[in-house]
Amino acid sequence: MHIKPLGKNVLIKPLTEKETKSGILLPASAKEKPQEGKVIAVGEGKWENDKRVPLSVKAGDKVLFKQYGGEEIKVDGEELKILEEEDILAIIE
Amino acid sequence: MHIKPLGKNVLIKPLTEKETKSGILLPASAKEKPQEGKVIAVGEGKWENDKRVPLSVKAGDKVLFKQYGGEEIKVDGEELKILEEEDILAIIE
Amino acid sequence: MHIKPLGKNVLIKPLTEKETKSGILLPASAKEKPQEGKVIAVGEGKWENDKRVPLSVKAGDKVLFKQYGGEEIKVDGEELKILEEEDILAIIE
Amino acid sequence: MHIKPLGKNVLIKPLTEKETKSGILLPASAKEKPQEGKVIAVGEGKWENDKRVPLSVKAGDKVLFKQYGGEEIKVDGEELKILEEEDILAIIE
Amino acid sequence: MHIKPLGKNVLIKPLTEKETKSGILLPASAKEKPQEGKVIAVGEGKWENDKRVPLSVKAGDKVLFKQYGGEEIKVDGEELKILEEEDILAIIE
Amino acid sequence: MHIKPLGKNVLIKPLTEKETKSGILLPASAKEKPQEGKVIAVGEGKWENDKRVPLSVKAGDKVLFKQYGGEEIKVDGEELKILEEEDILAIIE
Amino acid sequence: MHIKPLGKNVLIKPLTEKETKSGILLPASAKEKPQEGKVIAVGEGKWENDKRVPLSVKAGDKVLFKQYGGEEIKVDGEELKILEEEDILAIIE
After folding, report:
1. Alpha-carbon distance D56 to nearest alpha carbon in chain E (angstroms)
2. Which CATH number characterizes residue A63's domain?
3. D10-47: per-residue pLDDT in tens?
4. Contact by Cβ (8 Å): F29, F42
5. Which Pfam families does the UniProt entry name for this protein (chains A, B, C, D, E, F, G) (predicted)?
């Protein structure tokens, strides 16, 4: 089964704290903590001025996203999230 | 009888939990759970810059949509929904 | 006497439940129930980029509209409604 | 004395119930009842894309307008209203 | 001393009831009563599409403006108001 | 040390009541009293249609600004404010 | 590890009070105190009219930013912030 996000939606697999060995530790006090995740699939982009604006992230990118954005879904046992591109803050390289 | 959605409206038949054998299980805790459905008919798209922007979904597509979007109607005994395209998150292939 | 809607306004005659033999039954639980009606007259459309965008419905169309949109008026004893085009969800054919 | 509305403002003389012999009766239950009036003067229209968009009503038109829109003024003893064009729903012919 | 309004701001001297012999009497019941005033100075207009849109009023115009719009200032003992152009409803000729 | 405002931000030194010998006295009753100040530095303007829209005020201008707009900072002992251009109502000449 | 901000996001290292020897002292009374920081990395800018609008700050700039904007993260032990460009008020030179 394949989930194909529409428009500027992005399908993400959030990483658990154990998986994020990148050195990013999120402060416990922050009200809305950004979270790490891996991009699974991206939409074709939003329609603007008669063409689509391609997204800035691609499948495979490790990203930092706003924790409370998007919708949670469970696909074949995996917990995923569908976010809009604006909820992604940065790529972790 | 035929329902022809206007503009960027989409007519959808929500699938019951038994019908969604796709492996998507929605977490019970999520406040706004996305739901699966089958597209029955789509509008011609929104008017923008002197032409219509065609929708990204078509009749027959299996989609994931936001549960609280749109309007519920009952047509010939079937419970359907009319949603705006933005309430559809992804196509399930 | 003739009512000529302005811009993107549409004049509609809502149908009573007895008149809607189309098979559409609206769920009693829905907070905002779409309603059936017949288009009596339409405006010339909204002004955009130096021209008018014509409306997608025309006099005579049977339509599904959002129940709480628009303004109620009574003309020659008939109860009518003036709605904006966006409050019309679909054409019933 | 002459009142010249600015931009998309319209000067209107609301008609009393006795004057509206047009057959339009407004339901007492409607929260915001549209009201009949006669257009006295109109503005030159709103500035858009380097020109003015002319209004769709003209002095002398009998119109249906939203009751709670606009500002009430009294000129030479007459109770008038200054409305924006969007508050006018239809022309009564 | 000279006050030069910026952009679409307009400097106005509100007229007292005694000064408004124009025949306009504002109803005591109206929540937001339009008020008469004389334009003292106007801004160069708002920047739009690489040029300034000139204002529709000029110094010396007698105008009707919304009572609660704008900011009150006192210049050399005179009570004045700085309003945005949109708060001016009409020119009184 | 030099503070260089970004975009449409303006750095202002608010004047105390003793410094404002201009004759402008602000009414004590006004909820949001405009205040006088001297422009210290201005941004390059907002990006619009592929160029920057230059600001309408320049360093040295004496201006009237909305009291509650902007952010207070203290630089080398001086109390300054960073405001957006829209919070400036007029130039005092 | 490298954090690459997306779009108009900017990665900033906030400076502690001891590090800000610039002479800027923020008033204790201000509800939302601007804060000093050093830009670590910037996004490619927002997509507008078929191109990206480059940001006005660059890595290495010392900036004044709104305290409550953005998201806090901790990278390799350092407390950083990801802000949108609009939350940066000025460059400190």
Report:
1. 18
2. 2.30.33.40
3. 999 998 766 765 555 555 454 457 899 999 999 999 88
4. no
5. Cpn10
Task: Quote the pLDDT of residue D22.
Answer: 55
For residue D45, give both structure tokens.
Answer: 């229209």
Q: Could you tell me if the ipTM is greater than 0.90?
A: no
In a domain, F77, yes or no: yes
Instruction: Write out the two tokens for A9.
Output: 């939606």
What is the count of structural domains for chain C? 1
Does residue E4 contact residue E41 with C-beta atoms inside 8 Å?
yes
Beta-carbon separation of G27 and F75 below 8 A:
no
Task: Classify residue E77 as left (phi > 0), alpha (psi -120 to 50) or beta.
Answer: left
Nearest to E36 by CA among E74, E71, E72, E63: E63
Residue A41 within a domain: no
- Residues F23 and E78: beta-carbon distance below 8 Å: no
Per-residue confidence (pLDDT) for residue F16, from 0 to 100: 77
Q: What is the pLDDT of residues G33-60, one digit of tens each?
A: 789 999 999 999 988 877 888 899 999 9
Q: What is the dihedral of CA D51, D53, D59, D63, to 10 degrees?
A: -170
Q: Is residue D41 part of a domain?
A: yes
Q: CA-CA distance, B20 to B41, in Å (whole number)?
A: 20
Selected residue of C62, C64, C83 to mutate for chain B interface (largest B Cβ count, 10 A): C64
* Cα of C56 to nearest chain D Cα, Å: 18
Q: Is residue C7 part of a domain?
A: yes
